[in-house]
Amino acid sequence: MTRTALVTGGGAGIGGGISLRLGKEGMNVGVLDINPAAIEKTVAAITAAGGKAVGLQADVSKRTEVNAAVAKLRQTFGPVTVLVNNAAIIEFFPFADITDEIWDRTMAINTRGPLICAQAVLPDMTAAKWGRIVNISSSGAQTGAPTAVPYTSSKAAIWGMTRSMALELAPLGITVNNIPPAAITGTPNWHKNLDKFPIPEEQFLKGIPVGRFGQPEDIGHAVAWLVSEGSSYITGQTIGVNGGRYFT
User: Fold this and answer.
1) Which residues fall within 8 angstroms of residue 131, CB to CB, at 6 or more apart?
2) Is residue 151 annotated as part of the catalytic site, yes or no?
3) Which of the residues 77, 130, 151, 190 is marked catalytic?
4) What is the pLDDT along the chain (248 residues), one digit of tens a residue?
5) Taking the domains of the chain in order of start, what are their residue ranges?
6) Which fold would CATH assign to domain 4-231?
């Protein structure tokens, strides 16, 4: 059976790597992003690799846009039974300068977005008695980060959301798991972090036992496993994909 997957923030960086990996797995992929150019590029890459994909432009914090995107994906490929909640923003502000608007915008995209997307595809998963949801959080939820209180708070919320969703949805045949990436290069957020916290590469690598930075495809490989048939006994878990980097 060919599964249909929705990947949010799927146009670039980690989301692009996940979208391409699932396409190579033979899944039909809905590449949802707010950036049309990024969507087009990733859809083209999936198609060039022999997969099938459709581009979906939407702001994940807006329920009407998400519902319209899911309807288009469903019409194109059928019921959506795989969801990867990856879309997120990160902005840096000193704690004293955080406004209600900054906080609300971050929470709307990073935390409410996954809720909206999961609710949009839940009827398909419930009808199939089968579903896979993977939430992409961040290692920042464990370590914290100065001037990134809204972001790290929103990503910490994903951990609790994952666990609670897993407990509630397991009887429906739906698994829910969480991946907090760390040190993944070639992504927009990676460059933002480097600009804000310039750390020499050799110093950073000392904290990564495997001796290299991660790539978007590393997250894609982990997601592909978590959405496979073979992961049916794994739910409510946080799977660190971080090269062995240890967090307290």
Assistant:
1) 81, 82, 83, 121, 122, 124, 125, 169, 172, 173, 174, 175
2) yes
3) 151
4) 899 999 999 999 999 999 999 999 999 999 999 999 999 999 999 999 999 999 999 999 999 999 999 999 999 999 999 999 999 999 999 999 999 999 999 999 999 999 999 999 999 999 999 999 999 999 888 888 889 999 999 999 999 999 999 999 999 999 999 999 988 887 766 556 556 556 666 666 767 888 888 899 999 999 999 999 999 999 999 999 988 876 54
5) 4-231
6) Rossmann fold (3.40.50)
